[in-house]
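Troubleshooting log. The previous structure file for this entry was overwritten by mistake, so regenerating from the original sequence record. Sequence copied from the archived sheet and checked twice against the printout by T.R.
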Amino acid sequence: MKICIFGNKTSTLELLLHLTKNKITIHSLVCVSENVASKNTISGFESNLISVAKKLKINVFAVSDYSLSKSDQLKIFSESKFDLGLSTGWQRIIPNNILKQFKYGIFGWHGSGFHLPNGRGRSPLNWSIRLGLQHVYHNCFKYASLADDGEIFDISKIIIKKNDYIYDVQIKALKHIKKSALKLIRSLNNGYPILLKQTMHPFIYFPKLDEESGHIQPELMKVEQAINIIRSCSAPFPGAFLIDQINQKKIRLWRATGQILKNQKKYPGEKRIKKHIIEIHMIDGLIRSTDFEIEGIKE
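Regenerated output below.
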């Protein structure tokens, strides 16, 4: 089977290594060039991906157009005649004219706290933590012309613990990616598997989260809301932050704990920095962090 992997992230490299370890031959890797990567925000970008792929004797197509809309890029796929595509760490919709070039199609993964079609859209794992949800339905599905619209091959329910940060949930999701990728390849070797169609009705769609989405506003937020935002924005993402209005400095919070106070005697927004600890009062209590930065100075 002639397999092509799409992606730019650490998860892409992990999938590539997992499949080759299990004696699955990967013919090609499609990723963006270093120039394109530098112009796009790719959280979790893997700088060693290309060099590792080449060492494994995998053909590398480092494309100059992240949207794969150029005619010379379509030529890559029409001439290669791939059987199967696997996509993880590719943050763009793959055009339909490329999807059609694959005998069995291109499959990828998408997970949120809701069953598809609900939970389509951007940053679904981050949103699941941000909303305080306790699980993720992680899907391996066949790509279609619309985002997250394809038929489903495999679903895994992933538990989100109260102390899980986004990296922890990503690791759990990666386990399913590896397992379901092998399952899909083996199923295709025995005949095309039965896929589950998504229901056709109105659905909840997640918008993109960006740098400003991590802004902690103590005067407007409760402890739980702030903690969930911090958990959802932590590494490998840019990190949650609050603004020191007096000094106009950005304080970035990577991890934090919260405490509800029945008799809140401080005004929301009041903070105290002592040695390596910062405390910020919210509407209903305070959050405390020992893992924070002030304008890039690690505390």
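The helical segments are 10-21, 34-39, 49-55, 71-80, 96-99, 124-130, 166-189, 223-233. Archived copy saved in two places this time.
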